[in-house]
Amino acid sequence: MISLRLLIPIALAGALLGQQPEDHKNRDLGYDDTPQIPGQKWRVHDNTRPHPPKVTPAAQPGQPPSDAIVLFDGKDLSHWVMRGRGGATGAPQWKVENGYLEVVPRKGGIMTKEKFGDIQLHVEWMEPADVKGTSQSRGNSGIELMTRYELQVLESYEGVTYADGQAAAVYGTWPPLVNASRKAGEWQTYDIVFEAPRFEGDKVVKRACITVFHNGILVQHKAEYLGRAIHARVPMYAPHGAEEPLSLQNHGSVVRYRNIWVRKLKGYDQQ
Ligand code: MG
């Protein structure tokens, strides 16, 4: 025989399931009487909080999702210009063939026409199989966020240089957490989340920071830039716009790029 102590909770549970109070049903889409999330303007499970936009992922990982801006698809360089000291200096003179973009030494770097602040960026790059040189001369290029904050590109599978200058280093500040380099002649991937610095007048109030997966392996995790890298000196900040072009460095080495796409990110403070 079932005791009353067991029957009462079972009966109560049944009543709740069968006769759900009206206000409880309406809470499937959120609440209006819950406490506020500290530091946010929203309540816990807030029924007025906007839903994030839908994005269609690519069929294959590494390919651009529906909201990406494709900066280089293997053929088209229309998003890019040559980068001179004072800015854009005309059509890009790097070589495009067989679905990749190749640095042409002594022709200067290239940069995007469009400007970016906080971004997610996917870049694929490859060192030539017959890469030559040593240390910083061995397949040197770079992803220059906002034309200033370099993520190093270098042949670091066999090549050796100072730790804060090898592939996937925040140049002059942070070596990668691990060396995830592939051999020269193999395509490599960088998946980057970059947060732009914030300035108030001449003062930096939030440093630029970067998270990087190199060939799918976490190599930088919210690593902060101390400013624009200067060879053999401590990096320094100088104020600039909230958005700036993305550039690819010409360091005199032949390096190839393909499948470059970017997503603009809305800051967490705006959600
Ligand atoms: Mg470089």
Overview of the molecule:
The chain has 271 residues and is mainly beta. The protein has two domains: 49 residues, no CATH class; 201 residues, Jelly Rolls. The chain is 7% helix and 34% strand. Strands 1, 4, 5, 7, 10, 13, 14 and 18 form an eight-stranded antiparallel beta sheet that branches. Strands 3-2-6-17-8-9 form a six-stranded antiparallel beta sheet, with no helix packed on it. The protein is globular and about 65 Å long. About 5% of the residues have low confidence. The site of magnesium ion has 8 residues, from strand 8 and strand 9.
Query: Helix amount, in percent?
Result: under 10%
Number of domains: 2
CATH class of the largest domain: Mainly Beta
CATH architecture level-2 label of the largest domain: Sandwich
Helix segment tally: 2
Query: What gyration radius follows from the Cα positions, in whole Å?
Result: 25 Å
CATH level-four homologous superfamily name of the largest domain: Exo-inulinase, domain 1
Distinct ligands: magnesium ion
How much of the sequence lies in strands comes to 25-35%
> How many strands, what sense, and barrel or not for the largest sheet?
8 strands, antiparallel
Structural class: mainly beta
Molecular shape: globular
Named CATH topology of the largest domain: Jelly Rolls
